[in-house]
Structures are given as C-alpha cells and as structure tokens.
Design a protein that fits this description.
Blueprint: E1 4-10, H1 15-18, H2 32-44, E2 52-55, H3 59-72, E3 75-78, H4 95-101, H5 103-110, H6 124-140, E4 146-151, H7 153-164, E5 181-187, E6 190-198
Parallel strand pairs: 1-4, 2-3, 2-4
Antiparallel strand pairs: 1-5, 5-6
Helix pairs in contact: 2-3, 4-5, 6-7
C-alpha cells in the first residue's frame, strides 16, 4: 500500500497562546492547561497503531509528543523541520505591540503576502515549502503505516492548505486548536484530508485558535 496515514497534532496550550504573544521559534513550555491537553490527546490515541512519532524539538511540541509516545509506545523522534514559522523580530511580541511598532509590516502580515517575511524571519512561501517537504520525507519512510506529527499552529495550517489546495493567501476558515486531532493521508502524489479538528477528547476545555503562531 503506497500511502501513509498521518495524525497531526498541534501542541497543548501555552501562557503565550493565552496572551496572543508570538512564539515563533522561541522555546516556550506548556502551561497547566496545555499539560492536561497533552495527557488527554495521549489517552485518545492510546489504542491507535502508531509506528513513529515525529515532533518539533521546541519544548511545547516535544512535551506534547512525549505524552503521546508514553501512551502509545510509538518511537519518538525530534525533527527541526516541524518547527513553527520563524517570526524574527515579531517573536515575543503581542499582536497589538506588532501593529504599534511596525504598522506597515503588520499590514503585509495580515494580507498574508506569501513572499514577505519579518526581519530575521520566514515567509509563508518558505514555510509551506519546508513543511510539505518535511511531511513528505517522514511519510515516505512509513508507507502502509501510521505516524504522528506533533508541531505548531502554523505547521497545521500549512498541512491543511497542502491537503485541500487552499492558496497561501486564502483567509483561514478552519481551526488549528491546541491538541486537536487532525488526520491526513500521504501518497507520493501528495496529501489529502481525512478529518480535521477533532476535539471531543478535550471535553469543555477552551483551546485557543491562535491565528498566526
């Protein structure tokens, strides 16, 4: 069977998610809600057949993935290709602070200009290329099997766009909630969407859908 099943998970909540503060590639850990979400998504996947778990090496994703590995027995591997978009000088700032300090840059960001990048950061086009290349590289190792990718909101967004053919500039109308379960299928022809944003395991938890990072 020339296909790989992918379960894609955004990390659990962090304090910076709550503050709408851009994390980018800064190494921010989970808050207590995020740790609880990690435990819950791990329990939800405990009976799945999982051959490998690949995670961003940033702590918020790695700790979420570690909980899943402990529950499923899947082999856990770090992969820098699954890191969040690099936001350069925007990292550590809130949306409000960015708009006040860099109004012109903030406008290009809001317009989702594919070629624009904040100073020291990464463009949407570069992020899309990195994520689709990484997903294909990892999935190709596991044809006929199921793997888990644990990463970030921007990564989930790129996976969804790649699987559905959404343009990089299309406004986001889909959720990328913390610790939601997203399912895709990869073949050498690319990604297709199987299911998205299953949050039943989180009960009534509020999982912020941070729009950009």
């Amino acid at each position: 069977m020339h296909a790989t099943r992918i379960i894609a998970i955004r990390h659990g909540e962090t304090a910076w998610n709550v503050d709408t503060r851009i994390q980018g590639q800064l190494d921010i850990g989970l808050n207590e809600t995020g740790r609880q979400q990690a435990r819950r998504v791990a329990r939800a996947l405990a009976d799945e057949s999982i051959q490998a778990i690949y995670a961003s090496d940033l702590r918020r994703a790695w700790d979420t993935a570690h909980a899943i590995a402990s529950a499923t027995g899947g082999a856990l591997h770090a992969h820098k290709g699954l890191r969040e978009r690099g936001f350069g000088v925007f990292q550590g700032k809130t949306f409000t602070e960015i708009e006040a300090a860099w109004p012109d840059q903030a406008q290009r960001w809001r317009r989702r200009d594919p070629q624009w990048a904040p100073e020291g950061g990464e463009s949407l086009a570069a992020l899309h290329h990195r994520i689709t290349r990484t997903a294909a590289e990892l999935a190709a190792r596991h044809l006929g099997e199921q793997i888990v990718l644990v990463a970030h909101g921007g990564v989930m967004d790129m996976l969804y766009r790649a699987a559905t053919g959404q343009d990089l500039q299309a406004p986001r109308s889909w959720e990328v909630g913390n610790a939601a379960i997203n399912r895709l299928l990869w073949t050498p022809d690319g990604l297709t969407l199987v299911g998205w944003s299953d949050k039943r395991h989180l009960d009534d938890d509020e999982s912020l859908d941070e729009t950009t990072a």
